[in-house]
Amino acid sequence: MWLYLAILVGLYYLLRWHRERQVVSHLRDKYVLITGCDSGFGNLLARQLDLRGLRVLAACLTEKGAEQLRGKTSDRLETVILDVTSTESIAAATQWVKEHTGDRGLWGLVNNAGISVPTGLNEWLTKPDFVKMLNVNLLGVIEVTLSLLPLVRKAKGRVVNVSSVMGRVSLCGGGYCISKYGIEAFSDSLRRELSHFGVKVAIIEPGFFKTFVTSPPVIPMSYMPTFLVDAMTNWSKPRPAKAM
Ligand SMILES: NC(=O)c1ccc[n+]([C@@H]2O[C@H](COP(=O)([O-])OP(=O)(O)OC[C@H]3O[C@@H](n4cnc5c(N)ncnc54)[C@H](OP(=O)(O)O)[C@@H]3O)[C@@H](O)[C@H]2O)c1
After folding, report:
1. What family, per the record (predicted)?
2. How remote is the CA of residue 112 from the centroid of ligand 1, in Å?
């Protein structure tokens, strides 16, 4: 009886080890599209996946960013220009991805592109400030995902959305936290809808890393050069007259 029990326990651990190994095979047949590859996380991920042999389709906002990335990677990596706020740009990139991936579909979509400005006290910001942020960080993610979903479904792939710790705690005013909370909500419903089709949806919630979006001059300067002093002296008072 003890022998049978030991064999059962052994089989259980073997099965668990096999399931949790999470080793992806045939990397050279797998296509991954990453948005916002000009700099930061997107750029780093594109180079790392390329090194591992995956077929990286790197979406950059600018031709300069795309050219620089191509200069640092293998011939396998290809670039496309994509502005996630433009429906035409998304449609053109989707067609390009379709032509590249063919019957294989898209194994991975990483919605990484994002901005962090304008950020400031809510009362000091205007509706266009919120619209600008939400267009890139939230509606951009949604439109890119909806457009590429048929290709992801074909490959039984995965969608990875880059949220933030600020998708859990609203530490600052403006559209940034709202956009990241929105990504979390969108990802949660999408995950439930797509699990039946073998598609996974994941979110990444980085803390604070040294990239352009967190660069010290960027956030205060988005509002005005004297942001910090004004924030301290005018906290909870109306928007200062000199605000841009
Ligand atoms: N760094 C952190 O600590 C941190 C923390 C939490 C979450 N995140 C998130 O991580 C993601 C990547 O940010 P990062 O830190 O790597 O900063 P980053 O270096 O500024 O990367 C953001 C990328 O998005 C691109 N982009 C901006 N607007 C775009 C648009 N309309 N269409 C397509 N691409 C656009 C930028 O292109 P250009 O360079 O040409 O402007 C840039 O390549 C963002 O979603 C950000 O919110 C970062």
Report:
1. Belongs to the short-chain dehydrogenases/reductases (SDR) family.
2. 6
pLDDT, tens digit, 9 for 90 and up, residues 9-41:
999 999 999 888 878 889 999 999 999 999 999
Question: Which residues of the chain have a pLDDT value below 70?
Answer: 216-244
pLDDT tens track for 214-244: 776 665 555 555 555 666 666 555 565 544 4
Residue 165 and residue 206 in contact, taking contact as beta carbons nearer than 8 Å: yes
Cα of 14 vs centre of ligand 1, distance in Å, is 41
Testing ligand 1's pocket by substitution, the residue of 110, 115, 138, 169 carrying the most ligand atoms inside 8 A of its CB is 115
Q: Which domains does the chain have, with CATH numbers?
A: 27-217 (3.40.50.720)
Point out which residues pair with 7 in neighbouring strands: none
- Bridge-partner residues for 82, per DSSP? none
Indicate whether residue 168 lines ligand 1 (CB < 6 A): no
Q: Is the CB of 135 under 6 A from ligand 1?
A: no
Closest residue (by CA) to atom 33 of ligand 1? 83
Question: Which residues neighbour 123 within 8 Å (Cβ) at sequence distance 6 or greater?
Answer: 173, 236, 238, 239
**Contact 89 CB / ligand 1 (< 6 Å):** no
Which residues have a catalytic role annotated?
176
Burial class (CB in 10 A: 0-12, 13-18, 19+), 77: buried
